[in-house]
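Quick entry between incubations.
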Amino acid sequence: MLHCPDPVAWRLRLAAGLPAAALASALIGAAPAAADETCQSPYMAKITGEEEYVYIWTLGVEGLGDGSDKLVTVDARSGSPTFGRVIDVDSVGGRHEAHHGGLTDDRRHYWVQGLDSSMIFVFDIASDPANPKLVKTIDDFVEASGGVAGPHGAYALPGRMLISGLSNKDGTGRTALVEYSNEGDHIATHWMPTAEEPRGAAGAEHADGYGYDARVLPRRNVMLTSSFTGWNNYMRPLGEVVNDPEAMKAFGGSMVLWDFHARQPRQVFSVPGVPLEVRWAWGEDHNYAFTTTALTSEIWLVHEDGNQEWRAEKVGTVGDPAQLPLPVDISLSADDSTLIVDSFMDGMTRIYDVTDPFQPKLIHEEKIGGQVNMVSQSWDGKRLYYTSSLLANWDKDITTPDGEQFLRAYAWDGKALTPRFEIDFLAEGLGRPHLMRFGSTALYR
Amino acid sequence: MKLPLVCAALLAALPAVAHDGKNHEMPPIEGPADAYFFRLAEPGSYRLPPIKPAADARLLDAGGAPLRLSALLPGRITVLAFLYTRCADACPIAALRLADLQALASRLPEVAERLQLISLSFDPEHDTPARMAEYGRQLRQPAGPVRSGCS
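Done. Structure below.
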């Protein structure tokens, strides 16, 4: 005889006090979205209108302005008196190798990170989207994570941030994924699999332990990670690295498919030549992701076949691989039809029709500047934003024309890029612009 | 009662699942991927770390009485699902999983006496206490041994 109340207490109804919209998006995952940059976590709140602000995590340059890393806010509102201009600058003090970061699921906070110092800076972008405020600094990432260093991406999960590391306390490329609560508390560390410690993953012989990007396709319960290199290489001048055969061995050539729920590596793919950015398609039956390889200039597709087996295969090349164009950031349009690929060395953007993801077709190419790295597009695909900086010690010499540092904004009509505005980050004494995220007051009304 | 048709159809299949006397094993996965159908890691083979304390939400129970979430949690293993009765895609899956849990727990009295399954609607405009009470009754239609074992 059990003396228990009915264990099935189907009895509750939410009255008030919980953010219903946040719960809904956390539960359902990819909510319909009307406008936003396309390469964000599906768990994240979306902008329903034109982006109003572009927040640019910018690496300070010694002797330029205050020399500090800073968050630069640019007015992107068409018709605004300050359209296309810097309207706010928040320096964090010092140079940390500002690189990547990301927005929380509720889009109230922007986490930006330093690859050198392993510091994390959390900005409130909700209280006044035109005037972000630094509200928290996390300075014990290495200790809290159990030795991970070089926090790179910050990817929104429900109530959490998933931070992909690049390095560790010894400076090599063995690294991990680190989860923090939105409040800034460490939750868990998941080390990348290696051949010696595959943690149950198939294809373990390809596992090299490097990390770079981490992105989730919730409805298939999979997460895909890519691989770069450790502190010893990314903080070293590029010319030295490429002329050091030992250093050139210390780059990633793998991607890992994870069981997302269990955070367990399922399968390791050989993707030679440093696969960097990962972009999942959005279509409800599009079970695939793109990446490009930096050193071999290839476009790869990781896809699920008709038997629910996952595969990685090369589906194209970017420019002339022999010239080492160095593909860096990529952006997939919201309708999965168009893939934008930036390459750093030649300063080019190339736009591919990927309606057939196995056969990318080049439809446009254009030189954006002396060097180019990041690209962000609006959800409708009509506005593109480019920034120039890759890494402080890999960027071209700022005293030369190709060493220009900029934000350039364009309109894209499917055929041509039309300039909307540009900001010279050297002339304005700001530094090296890197990661962009969009903001809007409409999110918080 | 306007239960989604999808939800009712899923629940109609429950007795066969609940009383087959076997563990719930993953059926073989064949053919093209289905939207929410994927292989799960073995139970016990992984950890789900605590994320953060739950917000102490103000709630109404199915009888309309106000209470706090914190009052429900101590001393029990709680599985809590967020859903709303007009939801026809993800919510019926969550409801089915709770029904599965109910059936599984019915075979494990030491679990059943510590377990509570709670569903929270985040559509308070539509999901009145009476509606949620009816929703719960519908879900319990294939009255499993958990209920008959409790007094």
